[in-house]
């Protein structure tokens, strides 16, 4: 059985993951509107991964005989800047999610909930990967962002991203 403190923080994390999906979907729609279909593809796939992150938390709470409590998801912003500014925003958002996951880990330690602590390790590793992927795109945009043909190639590269169902291992 999961204790209330851990249950609450995991339910809050579900909301953050689904908000992340909303944010990426809003960005995907924006990129599509301005003709950057590869950027649109990348952010749409990221949105699907965020839903997977939320669902893994959902399943874990149930697995621990806890209570899933879904809360209202904030409306994401809909006005965006350049691709570089958007990816810098993504990077800040992912750092925020990382700190939230770290707090879940540290609370699991405090509460001596080793199942939760073990579970959240998957998210810690996932955040390292997410921050790194976003950072690499930022580096490219910083180097080539003003060059339209380079932006075209980055867009083509991001268009090759494929969705793979994220499962807890
Ligand atoms: Fe699920 Fe991008 O953090």
In short:
The protein is an all-alpha fold and 169 residues long. It contains 5 helices and no strands.
Structural commentary:
The protein is mostly helical and 169 residues long. It has a single domain, classed as Up-down Bundle (Ferritin), CATH 1.20.1260.10. It contains five helices and no strands. Helix 1 runs antiparallel to helix 3 and helix 4 runs antiparallel to helix 5. The chain starts with a helix and ends in an 11-residue tail after the last helix. The mean pLDDT is 96. The chain binds MU-OXO-diiron. MU-OXO-diiron binds next to helix 1, helix 2 and helix 3.
Average of the residue pLDDT scores: 96
At CATH level 2, the architecture is Up-down Bundle
Q: Sketch the major β-sheet.
A: none
Summarize the amount of helix as a percent range: over 70%
What small-molecule ligands were found? MU-OXO-diiron
Runs in which pLDDT lies below 50 for 5 or more consecutive residues are none
How large is the share of residues in beta strands? under 5%
Reconstruct the topology from this structure:
Blueprint: H1 4-33, H2 37-63, H3 83-110, H4 114-144, H5 148-158
Helix pairs in contact: 1-2, 1-3, 2-5, 3-4, 4-5
The structure holds MU-OXO-diiron.
Features:
single chain, 169 residues, mainly alpha, Ferritin, binds MU-OXO-diiron
């Amino acid at each position: 059985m999961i204790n209330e403190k851990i249950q609450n923080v995991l339910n809050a994390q579900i909301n953050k993951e689904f908000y992340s999906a909303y944010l990426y979907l809003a960005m995907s729609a924006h990129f599509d509107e301005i003709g950057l279909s590869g950027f649109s593809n990348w952010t749409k796939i990221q949105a699907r991964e965020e839903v997977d992150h939320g669902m893994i938390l959902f399943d874990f709470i149930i697995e621990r005989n806890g209570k899933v409590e879904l809360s209202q998801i904030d409306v994401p912003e809909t006005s965006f800047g350049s691709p570089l500014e958007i990816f810098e925003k993504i990077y800040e958002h992912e750092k925020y999610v990382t700190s939230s996951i770290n707090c879940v880990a540290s609370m699991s330690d405090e509460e001596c909930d080793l199942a939760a602590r073990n579970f959240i390790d998957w998210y810690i590793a996932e955040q390292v990967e997410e921050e790194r992927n976003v950072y690499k795109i930022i580096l490219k945009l910083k180097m080539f962002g003003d060059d339209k043909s380079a932006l075209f190639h980055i867009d083509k590269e991001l268009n090759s991203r494929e969705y793979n169902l994220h499962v807890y291992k």
